[in-house]
Amino acid sequence: MSDAIHEGGCLCGSVRYRTTGAPNDTNICYCTQCQKQTGAPLPAFASFPLTQFELISGELGGYRASDFATREFCPKCGSALFWRRDGADYVSICLGGFDDPSDFPTPKYEIWTDHRIKWLTNIPGVDSYPGDN
């Protein structure tokens, strides 16, 4: 996967992006902010170094639900796209926005499992953390 190229975008197609190489990691976040932003009970992400990420087209909207990160989305269709920690050298990309999210490996870990919906259980073989890891 070191030479892989993955593209993705928002629902309306206004925002397009490209990543190269392998992600730093893949994960699931059950925090209530991610759940509310995406409308999904288990939002999944692939994190890439900024040097392996390119915004190809479109403009982003942003929202700060915390004092340490910005959640970015398409202002036209509302698709949740990116999570960026202030000052970090990586971007976490919503896995469902990739053209073929099944190309990515099983998540390495799941965080904020204390907020997981009760009918969901641990994913076998994936490290679980009740809060942030």
TrEMBL record:
GO terms for molecular function: carbon-sulfur lyase activity; metal ion binding. It holds the Pfam family GFA. Keywords: Lyase, Metal-binding, Zinc. PROSITE patterns: CENP_V_GFA. Belongs to the Gfa family. PANTHER family: CENP-V_GFA DOMAIN-CONTAINING PROTEIN-RELATED, GFA DOMAIN-CONTAINING PROTEIN. This is Aldehyde-activating protein. The keyword Metal-binding applies.
